[in-house]
Amino acid sequence: MSTVVHERLRDTDELRNIAGRGAALVEGGNLDETDPAALLAWTAEQFGDGFIVASNMQDAVLVDLAARAKPGVDVLFLETGYHFAETLGTRDAVVSTYDVNLVEARAEASVAEQDAAEGKDLFARDPGRCCGLRKVVPLKNTLAGYDAWVTGIRRVESPTRAQAPAISFDEGFGLVKINPIVAWDDDRFQQYIDDRGVLVNPLVFDGYPSIGCAPCTAKPLPGSDPRSGRWAGSTKTECGLHSS
User: Fold this and answer.
1) Which strands make up the sheet holding 175-178, listed edge to edge?
2) How far apart are CA 57 and CA 215, in angstroms?
3) Are 191 and 29 in contact, with CB atoms under 8 Å apart?
4) What residue spans carry the Polar residues bias annotation (predicted)?
5) Among residues 20, 50, 160, 215, which is most buried (max CB within 10 A)?
6) Which residue in the list 53, 175, 239, 241 is annotated as catalytic?
7) Distance in angstroms (rounded) separating the CA atoms of residues 11 and 244
8) Residue ranges for the binding site for [4Fe-4S] cluster?
9) Would you state the pLDDT for residue 9?
């Protein structure tokens, strides 16, 4: 696990310009948004050690791709204190299997401290605030040391992600955002898992197609939106990490 404190190397204007140039390459067909290897090669060329790859440890598809593009790449895991045991086991397996450097982002308060300050089970009463404290703030603090972050969101996952670009400037966190597998459909995604023997969280095989914190994740009903098991029974659909 990393103990190195990163510092952002470029200012906001420069990062915004880099994101614009990258988006223009994609739009002009000079950078293929369906080719994660090309997008990650561009990322490594632009940012060197100044980018980090986010993983919720549902699977290691993005980790596998990133480790091939840049061995030793930083991989971010948000340790919320509410994860399934299977998710933590997948995290440990990823670290043992792939050439990556794990960077864990944690909330300032432990779950017990949060319960004392906010009342027990904040996730049930105000999931937006719970996600803010345990995900958004720790992520923002970690990303403050990087020029870019790489995520595994895909357009087919939900209506809120249907227009997600391959490269953009993330206004919420103030850095460049790259989504290398954004154009992959489910068949292409599964093909990569099968072809590469990629690690997958055991909960996926138990009927959880979208995995978050244990108290806020349920099995979706047959035929329903794969993300409908997240914050089931509420109107919440995103935790606030992917606002752009």
Assistant:
1) 100-106, 73-79, 51-54, 148-150, 175-178, 167-170
2) 17
3) no
4) 234-244
5) 50
6) 239
7) 19
8) 130-131, 213, 216
9) 82
Binding residues: 130-131, 213, 216
CATH class of 12-205: alpha beta
In the prediction, which pLDDT does 228 show?
64
Whether the Cβ atoms of residue 181 and residue 32 lie closer than 8 Å to each other: no
Question: What contacts 24+ positions apart, CB below 8 Å, involve 166-169?
Answer: 166/22, 166/23, 166/26, 166/31, 166/33, 166/39, 167/19, 167/22, 167/23, 167/25, 167/26, 167/31, 167/39, 167/42, 168/19, 168/23, 168/244, 169/15, 169/16, 169/19, 169/20, 169/244
